[in-house]
User: Fold Protein kinase domain-containing protein from Actinomadura fulvescens.
Amino acid sequence: MDVLPLRPGDPDRLSGYRLVGLVGEGGQGSVFLGEGDDGARVAVKLLHARFSGHPKARSRFAAELEVAQRVAAFCTARILDADVEGDRPYIVSEYIDGPPLARVLATEGPRAGAALDRIAIGTITALAAIHQAGVVHRDFKPANVLLPPDGPRVIDFGIARALDATGTLSSTAVGTPAYMAPEQISGARVGPEADVFAWGTTMVYAATGRPAFGQDSIPAVMHRILNLPPELGGLTEPLRDLVLQCLSKDPAARPSSQQVLVRLLTLAGSLPQAGSGSQAQPAAVLTQGAAAAEADEVRLLPPPVTPPALPPGFAQPGGSYPPHSPYAAPGQPYNTPPPSPYAPGGNVGGASWPHGAANPPPHGAASPPHGATSPGSPQVTSPSSGRPGVNGSGGPRKRPNVGVLAGVGSAALVALVLAGSVIAVNVFGDEKGGKDETPKTGGQMKMVLSRFYSGEELNPSQAGYGSSRFVTKQLFTGLTEITPAGAVRNLLATRVAPADSICTTWQIDVKGGTTFSDGQPVTAEAFVRGWIRAAQNPSGAAALLMSNIKGYAEVSGGRATAFSGVQTSAARNRIDVALDKPDCEFDQRLADPVFFPVPPSALKIDNKPYNAMPVGNGPFKIGSYARDKELTLVRNDAWGLGKARLDRVAIGFAADAPTVGRTGFVAGAYDWAEIGADRLPSARSERGLLTRQSSSMNYLVPITTRGPLKSKEARLAVSYALDRRAMSEAVFGGLYAPAAGLVSSAVPGFGRPGACPSCEKPDPAKARQLAEQAGLRAGTRLTIYARELPAYQRWAQLVRERLQQVLGWSVEIKTVEISKDEQLRKAVLGKDSPGGLLTYGWAPDIPSGYGVLQPLLGGDQVATESNQMLNFSGWRNQQFDEALANALKDPRPATRLNSLQQAEKLALDDMALIPLWSYVKASLASDKFTGLQMDYDGDPTLATAARK
Assistant:
């Protein structure tokens, strides 16, 4: 903020302070840059002369001073001097030499890494100090956070108030709309929980550059705050999980500011040792919070999980591995951390973590078409579907050293009557003004899709992995969905839980009162009817996702008409499922279309009229359909989860949908267009580009049973020789994230720093040393088997160039057709094969390490010329297989994850696969719509989209 010259009439001296410039002016007073007799700079807030004789104005000014003086100077601006009784009341505060967070974000973009962690700790320290003083800030937002070199500071207590005896404030709400808590908007009594909510929204803004509830019209923003989940964008763990807790609609479900601070200090390894955990003293915690906020390299890391006891003969890897703390369905957390002061029942400073504060899941989610290969798209092998996750944000940026004064004063307020309450709205907040973008009901959206593959239809039993899957999700709603963080969230299931200690039996309670679009009830029986129908499709995803349900083989083989392991209870609207073997991740399968319900009219799998024009229970139903030409979806007003806003979705079909769609999008003919992998470099700067990191991965598969890569040292030499970031830049415009392990960081619990040292950066010297240890010298012959897709050919060439340059090897590329599995297997696995490397893509069917590791490296999955297994590497490891088996029968999320992480480490230490990167789903979305994002499969969220 610029310091302006003094105006005519402005004082040049006040008490013992010389005023040298004007910083800003609010409705209550002006703020000047001042200097003391010792030359120290200060901020001087002077009450407007016109209010000097106004008793109420003087009283408010005195109240601001009283509030500010009550707050300990932890990450706030200290009060140095004041006179509120004289002719010209003034308050002198500490000068904060740093820009507002709002300005930094506007000029430099979102924060990430240590810069974001430092802001989080500093600002919550300030709020904890404010609340400890019995004060509520009431207008916490990016404009009131300053970023000096010594750590963030929170300023402007102009509308702060002391709490009454009940710990709350009156129902007259004040604040800036995008950062106001639901209780502020609705006129309920306001306490410190409102500041915690505002802290959560500010952290989202700091990490993404966008408010969590939008920044369009005031009524639209307030509607989202009251009724819709936040949009967290690229905010990552472990901060993301905590922010979701703070953004609970229910104030009682939010942690206190002190508890948030303790949790952050715990994650940063900075909690005071003398009184850690539930015994930590508030003053010590505040002191440590301020110290951590000053540190340049403070980082938040997920809490460690103690490895579980392993069976005899299973070596315990050294150390423990921190889990990723993903979102969970309400009441069903995915990862249970070790006991801590911020867990339910914990206590810090006399306050307990709110009961029932389960991690609320975000809405929306995304994934690539699985197995669908449009020209230029990466080829991904999967029996079913891949699961992308959340795209990360960039690294920290340098802050400009700009002097800004604390306590600029309260912004002007304007009254707004909403829901019967008087709302005082800050019209000079840091949101940008703009046209009215309130979501409107009605209108049409246009897009183009790839044509269906042979055998695919518009129903759950025959949906494929691309276009048909997307359309089926619009026509049907299932028991659960996968959130952007890769966790399970209930939809029409009210409860999904194992009924025994090793997860061989499951109970699923179904929401009552919903119907199909024809009025037929959606019951437990309707779901099982859909399961049986899907099992009758020999080429569908049920072959993988349902194979462990007792009786599946009989149903799929036509020897039975029902699963022997599935029973329904009409009275309870419940499904009881018995499995052939333990599977504590069975609930993650239920989001797939093969588990969707169908009405009685569906009949058997060979009912062609239903297959082509199905009756569903989703947000849309079919208006008209001409296969491979056009499809019209219209709103289904009988949807059991609300009502879509769009009237219609017009879909065209094309053989090369990415090219047609992108051209049409630029011309204004389409509102959504998918970007093929080969077009990513040119799409980075396009308006409306949406990206999401995927759980799908690209690998080099080393043949470990023969040839030059038979030894671990040879495989590690290849990994250390590669420059993954440069390769991604050359092939994918840098949008594909270099791998941090065998499992994508989009999968909860993976992508941990240090898991794969050879993946982090190239080390040519170490690569040559390892190659020499393996007996591989210059001139060593190596074959790379590359799929025929352009992207695969390109990165195979880059691998060849790198291995020739770094190791001096003689590398040959052999092209194999993606559609000819027999040819591929013979070339790579045949008795005459020299071994080498295979370019490979994999999309896991569930967001789990098991879904990646077992098919690709399981000892029972070793590929041969004649089978259909996918462990082309041929690698076997008994400890690895035991770790995977332990994971599936462990109902405890934390220890299950730890077993999977151990399995990944065993494979990485031996470099059984050479990970390259997880790929990104990219699309163009029109700015004419709001609520239009990428869902878990990378598809547009039609159910939440609306015209502005």
About this structure: The chain has four domains: 13-96, 100-302+347-362+394-430, 444-635, 690-921. The chain is about 25% helix and 20% strand.
